[in-house]
Amino acid sequence: MSVIVESQAKLFHLQSSGMSYMLQIVDGYPVHVYWGSKLKHREPMGDLLINTPEKAGLDRLPQEYPQYGSGDFRNPAYQVELEDGTRITELQYVGYRIQAGKPPLAGLPAVYTEDDAEADTLELELLDAYSGLKVYLLYTVFAERNVIVRSVRFCNEGEAKLRLRRVASACVDFSSNREREIVYLSGAWAREGNVTRKPLAQGEVRIDSKRGMSSHQFNPFAALVDPDTTESRGEAYGFSLVYSGSFEASAEVDSFGSARVNIGVNSFDFAWLLNPGESFQSPETVMVYSGQGLGEMSRTYHRLYRTRLCRGRYRDEERPILVNNWEATYFNFNTDKLAAIAEEGAKLGIELFVLDDGWFGKRDSDNSSLGDWFEDRRKLPGGLKEVADRINGFGLKFGLWFEPEMISPDSDLYRKHPDWCLHVPGRRRSEARWQLVLDYTRKEVRDYVYDSLSAIFSTVPVSYVKWDMNRGLTEIGSADLPPERQSETAHRYVLGLYELLERITADYPHILFESCSSGGGRFDPGMLYYMPQTWTSDNTDAVERLKIQYGTSLVYPVSSIGAHVSAVPNHQVGRITPLEFRGDVAMSGNFGYELDLTRLTEEEKATVKRQVAAYKQIRGLVQTGDLYRLKSPFEGNESSWMFVSENKEEALVYHFQEKAVPHPPRRSLRLAGLDPELEYEVHSGTDGTAAAIHGGDRLMGLGLPLIYEQKDYTSGWFRLQAVKSSKNEA
Length: 730
Ligand code: DGJ
Hints:
Immunoglobulin-like, 3 domains, 13 helices
């Protein structure tokens, strides 16, 4: 049982294999007692809490879901406005329920169990007696993972209307006697995944998105760590919101040094009307505890998200190596050009051809046709079917790009339905990339998109879809909603998106879906629930990618991280790097190419052929192995990471150096995650030189010797295979 209840003391102890989380009802308030390494339950533990609200006042009490207006002056977790205009509520404990497994969240993406024995869910029932507001706090604790998943459900059981103004998915009050730092991912278009770390001090650190999407600027994730927490040591507490829209996360340190973390849908420009009898379910937050640094925190997220968030057939299948025509041709292609790239790809062993933007309407640039999902017969005289058949004829699968949430003002769809975009009547409609956003709160809009896509899926053999989304939401209003519900538009947009994604992915289970939002603008757990992989960034420069992929891996599994080799000079930064270096960076993710294969030299083709063949051998380990980050590209000239199989008998090590170093020292790379008792045969993947045998203890202690090459942008990789046990050696 993962939830232990001390009924008398009203103490709830949630326990996993390596973690405890405790809360207690004190004077009717759910009070936070502990979150950290596993504590053995020795009854009674209900005396752990020293301060009661009476003695301490709410402002000094660590709480589970704090309210506004009755003495706690920190950020509340929620706020509700009553019909009389007052904004005070007082939630008091009513009871609890424990169920095996994890219930799904209606209409929302969520992690799941496959067997009830994997987790238990505690539901606390709270009531504001004055208004009739019922609040249910949900906590799922996994038996074998150091994970707690939290969400909240609001129900209006009163007689009058209520308006939710703020709804955190989780709130945790960390105790006051520790210095802490916050880690999060910041960035911009083409610069996603910057690992940002800074000390917390009295005051507030807040990250958010107001863009209607999770955003390039901040990922819906934050972690609190100790100042001395590293990749492999120290405590880390992760918060990852399973949501794809505007979000907020804050860490507020009060005058006593305690830190309150709140995370949820962005309260800015949010309100939700709850009529009597209605309810509102918040998205969920996945909270991870690690006592072994950020590395273990990431691995816990990776295992959970790869196997209990991602769904569908491709969850457990090796992902195909693709070639995408975007950087090869942009909008300038015809059937023969596409077929030529695919034919070359077939010779090199590539498995999937993806036709990107520009195949529909009259789309010769990015200024028209979104919404008109009909093939452009000027470019593709035989239609998509002919393209797909020719590509299939070479032995490659066929994939297709869509941007289904958008509408171009210059489109037949817009001319027919000018009110189908998000807009505010009488106001300017701000275009970005010459496009507007479809109003996904409206069922007829979603049905149109569903019908357009399924018309293609039922006539063309589409095996893969890239679902793109290239702008943020502006003039967030819906022609379909009454005035009192306009502030619900942004969240309803996301719910509408989820509804459509559920329908499409369920009806076309054979299609591998990859999400994209100008690269990583919507790389979040919400999208991963529907689509098991994401295009990580529009920046395909290998040096930039070291940082982007490293940062993204803080939360997201490598199987979800799309990584392509592109041409040089690189289209985003103009940098020239060797094909081997570009290959090694992309092979550390979900691998593909995004260049005109027909323009490669014979020597380059031979390299690509080798890379493709190698990736086919190692992709199982790359995509499902445990990731150990060894050297951070944010900290120096070298980057390194490795992938280790669950039984620790196989591993892959990647090492990169950006700039040549004059008169370099002797170098070795200390590995991690191996079994110190095992002997490993180490092969160089780069040049296939003779294998050497080293003990796991030595590889992690002394390290793997690295050969120095006197040039910029060098990389190397090694395969490790356990050969025999050295258990009896001294
Ligand atoms: C943005 C994506 O991130 C790119 O990969 C490409 O698909 C373009 N959109 C096409 O417009």
